[in-house]
Amino acid sequence: MSIFKKVLQHAQTSRVSAFHGIPFQFSAKLSSQINGIRQGTYYVVSGRPSSGKKSFTDLNFMFSVLWWYACTPEDMRPPLKILYFNMDKSEKVKAAKWICLYMSACFGKIIDINTIDGDYNKMYNIDSKTLQELEIAASFFDDMISKGVLEIYSGAKSPSRIHEYVERNMINYGGIHNEQDGEKRYELSPQYKHLQMIVVVDNASKLKLESQNKMAFADNDIHKKMHETMMHFKEFYNIAPVIIVPSFSVGGLFKKSQMTPDFREFGIYYEGCDVALHLFNPFKCDLNEYGEFQVKDFVTEPDNIPRLRFCTVMRNTEGLDSSTMPIVFHPESGFMFDCPLPSAPNYFQTIQHYKFFKQLQINEQQQSFNSEYTNANPEFGSTTIATNTGNEPTFQPINECAEQC
Questions:
Q1: Once rounded to an integer, what is the mean pLDDT over residues 36-60?
Q2: What does the domain layout of the chain look like in residue ranges?
Q3: Which residues in 186-200 are b (16+ Cβ under 10 Å) and which e?
Q4: Cα–Cα distance for residue pair 242/234, rounded to 1 Å
Q5: What is the CATH number of domain 20-351?
Q6: Is the pTM of this model over 0.90?
C-alpha cells in the first residue's frame, strides 16, 4: 500500500472512530492548538528557570491524562500506560507535588508541600475536610499505579537505561517481527491494538552519563543519544514520548530586547520533534509589560508571588504553531489554567480575584481549623498564633506542641 493510500485509510478510519487522541482536560486553548496527545507524536517542553515547564508537563501530559482515563467509561476508553521517569525530584517530593496538583485541580484548594508534609512554613493547618480530600488525592494515584496505568521510575537514568525500561514494557503489549526486506517492525497484540502509551522524561538536564567503548559521553553526545532514543520510541513503537529539556544557551538571548522564545533553546531536541512548547516567565526578566499584559497585575498580595506565564507553540507539525497562550500559574501546587486576554470582559475580574485569593483561602482554611480545634479542645479557647515570616503577618498554624509550650 502506498503512503498516499495509508493516509486516506487513516482518514476513513478516523471518520467512524470515537477516539482521536487524548484531550487536554484543563486547557481549552492548548486543545485548540494541538490535536491532543497522539501516538507517534514526539513532544518537547522547554523553558528558562522558574518558567513552570515541569508543572506544565505534569499537568497536561500526566495528570490530565489520568483524569481523562478515570472519567471515561471503561467500555469507551482504550488501554493506557504512562511511564514516568522522575529524575529531577525525590520520590517523596514528586508524590507530594502531585497531591497538591490534584487538590488544586479537583477541589480548588491552594496547598503546598510544606502544608502537607512539613513542620514549618505551613500555609495553614489542615482541617478534617481537607484531610479527607488529601486522602482522596493520594488514593487516586495509588489506584492508577495498582491498575498498572501509571509506572514511576525515580532517580537519574541514562538514555540506554530508559530505552531498556520502555522496551521491556512494550514487549508486554506486542512483539517484534522481521519483514521480508530484513527490517524489524513492532506490532501491538490484538487486545492492545488501541494502546495509548506515553513516556515522560523529567528532565534532560538530569540524564546520567554513559560511555561507549570505554569513552564517556560528552554533554552534547548524551543529549544526542537521548533525542535518538525518543525518536526511536516515536518511530519504532509508535508511542507518545514527552521530554522536558533545559533552555540551552543562545548568544544574546537574555537581553530585554530579545525576550521572544527562540527555537535554538531546545537544542538538538528541536530536530525531529512534532510539537515543541516553550514556557516563559516575564517576571524573571524584570519586564513590566509583555504583549498586551501588565505583568504587575498578576502578582498576588501580600506574598508577592508572580503568577503569569506564557506558553508558545514553537513547532506543531499537525496544526497551528507560532501562537502564544497566557497562563495563570499556581506554583504552590503546580496547577495552571487559561488566562483571559486584556480585551476580554472577565479580565479585570480575573486579575482582581488573583490579587488576594491565596490570602483569603489561607484565612478561610485557618478559621475552619481553629473552629474545629476549639470544639475538640475547649480548654484552649479560640486563640490563634500570629507570626512574622519575613513578609506580611499571616496566620500561623496551631499545633498542640505550640499550645503546650
A1: 95
A2: 20-351
A3: bebeeebeebbbbbb
A4: 10
A5: 3.40.50.300
A6: no
